[in-house]
Design goal:
Methionyl-tRNA Fmet Formyltransferase, Chain A, domain 2; 9 helices; Rossmann fold; Formyl_transf_N_sf; 7-stranded mixed sheet; 351 residues; alpha/beta; 6-stranded antiparallel sheet
Length: 351
């Protein structure tokens, strides 16, 4: 079976490597254009591109796939590459570009491969098309940031869905799903890694079953639909009036990106790890007030309970355990995090 693979970040690279390890032929990879990154802002290839080049796979990096869009020449070149690849199916994982209808139509027409047989009503008989590896249990958390939103919402479990793509946003029929528990200490980084390996394993299983007509698509239920909207940097600021548990989920959900943050005066501090504390609020304590400071962390009052911050980072600095952070940034009990800095004094101009 020949596969066109479309993906960009590490989540997708893991799936591509699993497909190659399983013996599938990948004549073409689609990935995002190289982007400037790092302190020097040098152009860097995506993890998927790096993997493809290591295996001698042709790479296309269109800025858009819309033939009537801003970059029609990119889309036309990608169309020619897709046709030349003569693939049976496209696998999509965190690609970052919307697939227009012409891509869905082209890949649906490619199936089944010559000589393949499949029972009536199976995926093979009705067209495999484009398969997406989605990091949630659809229809919950359709959209761009399912891992972040699952942690932020306090979900007890998530998982991976292998789905057939259609014109909607993650609305296509489901082929395989598998659940995964979210632990109380999971961050987006830790959960991402487990889901990525699960997704790579499931897409291999799905394609092997589809080749012999062993998959039956199931429509997504109409109930339970939620949307995982893209994470914005503006969401990173901690509101200390919220319960400690809610703030803790925010810290874990935004680790590693964009990083939950607070302020002390004009200084921004990122928060990377914490412990829940059962401190009872008192009328003389303000939300965000530092209650105590020691080598174990910085205890901060919240709307309900308190958080002991155990890993912090100041602007331009490194992520540090609290004991090291406090040597260079001596926080004190009574200071209030997240408070508005005082307005600068206006000098008198005289009579």
């Amino acid at each position: 079976m020949n596969i066109i693979f479309a993906g960009t970040p590490e989540f997708a690279r893991i799936a591509l490597q699993r497909l190659l390890d399983a013996g599938f032929t990948v004549p073409l990879v689609l990935t995002q254009p190289d982007r400037p990154a790092g302190r020097g802002m040098k152009l860097q290839a995506s993890p998927v591109k790096q993997c493809a080049l290591e295996h001698g796979i042709a790479v296309a990096q269109p800025r858009s796939l819309r033939l009537d869009g801003k970059f029609p020449e990119d889309a036309a070149a990608a169309r020619d590459a897709l046709q030349a690849a003569q693939a049976d199916v496209m696998v999509v994982a965190a690609y970052g570009l919307i697939l227009p209808q012409w891509v869905l139509d082209a890949m649906s027409a490619a199936w089944p491969p010559e000589g393949a047989k499949a029972p009536s009503g199976s995926v093979g008989a009705r067209g495999l098309g484009c398969l997406n590896i989605h990091a949630s249990l659809l229809p919950r958390w359709r959209g761009a940031a399912p891992i972040h939103r699952a942690i932020q919402a306090g979900d007890a479990e998530t998982g991976v869905t292998i789905m057939q793509m259609d014109a909607g946003l993650d609305t296509g029929a489901m082929l395989l799903t598998e659940k995964l528990a979210i632990t109380p200490r999971d961050t987006t980084a830790s959960l991402h890694d487990r889901l990525a390996h699960m997704g790579g394993r499931l897409i291999v299983e799905a394609l092997e079953l589809a080749a012999c007509g062993g998959l039956q698509p199931v429509a997504q239920p109409a109930q339970g639909v939620t949307y995982a909207h893209k994470i914005e940097k503006s969401e990173s600021t901690v509101d200390w009036s919220l319960p400690a548990e809610v703030i803790g989920r925010q810290i874990r959900a935004f680790n590693p990106f964009p990083g939950a943050s607070t302020t002390l005066g004009t200084e921004t501090i990122k928060l990377w790890d914490y412990e829940l504390h059962s401190h009872q609020s008192t009328p003389d304590k303000r939300y965000g007030q530092i209650l105590s400071v020691d080598n174990t962390g910085v205890l901060v009052a919240c709307g309900e309970g308190a958080l002991r911050l155990t890993s912090l980072q100041r602007s331009g600095g490194k992520r540090l355990p609290a004991s090291e952070f406090l040597r260079g940034f001596p926080l004190q009990p009574g200071m209030v995090l997240g408070a508005e800095p005082p307005a600068p004094a206006i000098a008198s101009t005289g009579p």
